[in-house]
Design a protein that fits this description.
Structural class: mainly beta
Oligomer: single chain
Shape: elongated
Strand content: over 45%
Radius of gyration: 34 Å
Number of helices: 2
Helix content: under 10%
Number of strands: 40
Largest sheet: 26 strands, antiparallel, barrel
Distance between the termini: 47 Å
Length: 674
């Protein structure tokens, strides 16, 4: 009978713990000074110290408990519950009637044992009610305390929150506070609405002291084979303008071999996102849709793009314009024909339209690639390809035409290449060394101006770098094409072991024919080009440094450099980036000034819970600090807070950068932020 009594009280106490949000599994131990069971009424009563511990470590202590037959009613005195990780409830008395449990003179905290000198936060109340059906805790006459009952922060006559077993619950989220770009102080009040486990949204009402309110919405929907995301904001400002933005991205899986994407990214004007702090200098917004079909060795992509330009042309700068409606690309790669030889077949249908001009084109290309590994480790790759373009122009500026051209033009662009490489390996102690010379000879039809048409329809010129070396075509876009024969050559050296990795590469290209069109500082010359390369070193992710460069072949002066470095460990880090370019010129923008810019960031973990970090962008050429930001962050197991600032010196229309601040605070329960 003793074991029967133990099992019965275990069952009832477990049930009551669940009513308070406890997730108790099979019990491990039950201790009590005295247990009395009335076999006739089914009532159970224990007196003296009663304690139960389950297999996962959850624990209940109480002084006296009485449970009615059928477990419909329960009362207990001096109860303590340890629920989950650091979650603790204490009550002078507790009663349950049906699904409702009432605790008198109770304390709730999720910080039990987090600090040796007390609970970081706790909520006390004259009455705490738990509704098992709603899974909600209701606090009457509640006080929010810091460090036990030392610092009272907030008193509320009534407060409610979900119990720890609830993953999602509609309600108010912790507010945040920040200053804005000339619009005063901004107070953000987010409201979370949960519609189901897969469907929710957050709406935020922002009060600004010097401007009309701002309304924000984040909508999320996850289905079995798709997801839908929408962000947006709207305000009717004091100038009487409706200003808004919408950012939508939907992905729909159409089986194993197909996927559809719909994306809408639009804004009411060029400066809204910047003024209200929603983006970091995007040059344009892109809206459209995409359909992807996948095969074993093939794919088809059909997409459209409608662009919204956010940059304002200045001086002698212009931007590419036009929308892509539509773009269809299909690619098929064969199985090996013999040895490792295979062929690709691709086709593109592309239409570009702007306010007063448009073009449509059909592009078809076939390529055969035959890689070979020969004696001594020599690697040889042979390739031949042919591309045929048909363009239909409507009021497009083309070469050798005085007026905008309308009509059909076509061209055939055959090409081929042979590429050789010889990776040589050696080992010394625990190091492995590789040196690999590499050469590629590209042969293609030399085109005249009649087939180098529409240079500014969708291409943006060419720029020689270590990443474009050994490429078939180094122009961005479809319109422009390499012209004539050229050779690429270079060498790569690498050394690595279990802790270190070093790589050095340097190369050059030689044009056998002067390009039909060229630009003053893109790295190409008649004949030999500039030297391009890269150097990198890494040490187990604690230290990384790399540089990409271009040297003028005539006097070895540096004309382009991109440098980056990272060092860090244990939450402390330093990053440094630098880009320098001598008078960059491309097909769309001409800038007679050097680009010389430093980007830096640093973070320091002062303690296990406190860290500071910051970043800056500095224009060295103009001696101008474009932007810098920083913040201090405190991450306690039971709550978090941060104070961030940003200084932006940019001026763009009605946006005048200034210093902004943002403060955040929230509590944590079992690792989840509220």
């Amino acid at each position: 009978m003793r074991y029967l009594f133990t099992s019965l009280i275990l069952c009832f106490v477990v049930s009551d713990a669940l009513a308070l949000g406890v997730n108790l599994d099979e019990a491990k131990t039950v201790k009590s000074d005295e247990i009395v069971y009335d076999a006739k009424s089914g009532e159970i009563e224990s007196s003296g110290n009663t304690e139960m511990t389950n297999a996962s470590g959850q624990r209940i202590k109480l002084d006296h408990i009485s449970i009615s037959g059928g477990n419909t009613k329960m009362s207990a005195d001096d109860i303590e519950l340890w629920l989950g990780s650091n979650v603790y409830v204490q009550a002078q008395s507790i009663k349950r009637d049906g699904n409702e449990t009432i605790a008198r003179h109770a304390i709730f905290t999720a910080c039990d044992g987090c600090d040796s000198f007390g609970n970081a936060w706790e909520i006390s109340g004259t009455t705490i009610i738990h509704d098992a059906n709603e899974k909600m805790l209701y606090f009457h006459n509640g006080i929010f305390w810091l460090y036990n009952d030392t610092f009272p922060i907030l008193w509320l006559p009534y407060y409610e929150m979900p119990d720890p077993s609830v993953k999602y619950k509609s309600g108010l989220l912790p507010p945040s506070l920040n200053t804005t770009n000339g619009m005063g102080t901004q107070i953000n009040l987010p409201i979370y609405v949960n519609l189901s486990d897969r469907h929710d949204f957050t709406t935020t009402i922002s009060y600004l002291t010097k401007e009309n309110p701002l309304f924000q919405l984040e909508h999320r929907l996850n289905l079995t084979h798709s997801q839908f995301r929408t962000d947006g904001a709207f305000t009717h400002n004091k100038a009487g303008e409706n200003r808004w933005y919408v950012d939508n991205n939907d992905i729909i899986e159409l089986g194993e071999n197909a996927r559809a994407t719909v994306y809408v990214n639009r804004v009411s004007d060029k400066t809204f996102l910047q003024k209200y702090g929603f983006y970091d200098y995007q040059p344009y917004l892109d809206s459209g849709a995409k359909l992807e079909l996948f095969g074993q060795t093939s794919y088809i992509v059909a997409d459209t793009h409608i662009f919204q330009e956010l940059r304002t042309p200045g001086g002698n700068q212009t931007w590419a314009s036009g929308d892509i409606l539509p773009n269809v690309r299909a690619v098929y790669q064969s199985e090996p024909i013999f040895a490792e030889t295979y062929f690709n077949v691709s086709g593109d249908v592309l239409a570009v339209s702007s306010s007063n001009s448009s073009s449509q084109r059909i592009i078809g290309e076939t390529q055969i690639v035959s890689p070979w590994t020969l004696w001594g480790g020599n690697r040889l790759t042979l390739s031949a390809s042919g591309r045929y373009d048909i363009y239909n122009f409507d009021h497009i500026a083309v070469y050798d035409e005085d007026n905008p051209y309308s009509g059909v033009k076509s061209r055939f662009l055959p090409s081929g290449y042979v590429e050789w490489g010889l990776p040589l390996f050696s080992t010394n102690n625990d190091w492995t060394y590789i040196i690999e010379p590499q050469m590629r000879l590209t042969v293609m039809k030399r085109t005249d101006s009649k087939s180098v048409f529409a240079r500014d329809n969708d291409s943006a010129g060419r720029f020689l770098s270590d990443t474009t070396l050994f490429s078939n075509n180094r122009y961005a876009g479809f319109d422009m094409w390499e012209n004539g024969n050229f050779a690429d050559y270079g060498a790569r050296w690498a050394a690595f072991n279990t802790k270190h990795n070093i790589e050095v590469f340097m190369g050059q290209t030689y044009d056998f024919n002067a390009p039909e069109q060229d630009f003053n500082d893109n790295g190409f010359r008649n004949g030999f080009s500039d030297y391009v390369g890269r150097i990198s070193y890494s040490n187990n992710d604690n230290f990384q440094i790399s540089t990409r460069f271009r040297f003028d072949r005539t006097d070895m002066s540096l004309s382009h450099a991109e440098n980056s470095a990272y060092i860090g460990r244990g939450g402390n880090y330093l990053t440094l980036g630098h880009i320098w370019d001598s008078r960059p010129i491309d097909i769309y923008s001409t800038n007679d000034e050097d680009t010389n810019e430093i980007i830096s960031g640093a973070g320091v973990r002062l303690t296990n819970r406190v860290r500071i970090q910051g970043s800056l962008i500095f224009n060295v050429y103009e001696h101008f600090l474009q932007r810098h930001s920083g913040g201090i962050y405190y991450e306690h197991p039971c709550y978090y807070l941060s104070l961030e600032y940003q200084r932006d010196n940019a001026v763009n229309g009605d946006y005048v950068g200034n210093t902004t601040f943002q403060f955040k605070f929230g509590i944590s329960i079992d690792g989840r932020h509220y």
